[in-house]
Amino acid sequence: MKTLLLMRHAKSSWKDTELADHERPLKKRGHKDAYSIAKVLKKKELIPEYIMTSSAVRSVETANDLVEKLEYKGEISVLDVLYMAEPRTYIEKIQSVPNDVNRLLVVGHNPGLESLVQVLGDKIDSMPTGGLAVIILPVQSWEELTLETEGELSRLWRPEELKK
Predict the structure, then answer these.
(1) What Å distances lie between residue 75 and 22, 28, 107, 128, CA to CA?
(2) Distance CA 22, CA 33 (A)
(3) CATH value at residue 92
(4) Do the Cβ atoms of 53 and 82 come closer than 8 Å?
(5) Per the domain annotation, does 18 fall within a domain?
(6) pLDDT tens digits, residue range 42-92?
């Protein structure tokens, strides 16, 4: 069994209208939300062994906030192809993860990330900014993962729920 953590980048800023979408940074609230998710990961003992993120500034900043709070020392793979990727692209990249990794975190974007949660999980749910889905996969190696794999969406955390 493998555990896939799928996180939509935290809340980004639209303040600078001259910036290309790929270059938009996180808002202050986005940083706070990422730190809240990191606390949950630590408390629930779901610290990833490997992190993959889109190359968009807001995704990289989300991943970096998690790394900082988790004191993560592992590898972070920043991939251009995950920017606005479709589920098939996420799957292809996940299949290349070393098999000694049992808990993988992927930081990405909607609509592709939300679609991936719905395809792999056993429930249909929305992925707000900063949301984190935990999917338990019935595979022994990442290479076995396909769009037909039926996993279990064991938990979905939304930043607004953590503020209560």
Answers:
(1) 22, 26, 14, 26
(2) 20
(3) 3.40.50.1240
(4) yes
(5) no
(6) 999 999 999 999 999 999 999 999 999 998 988 899 999 999 999 999 999
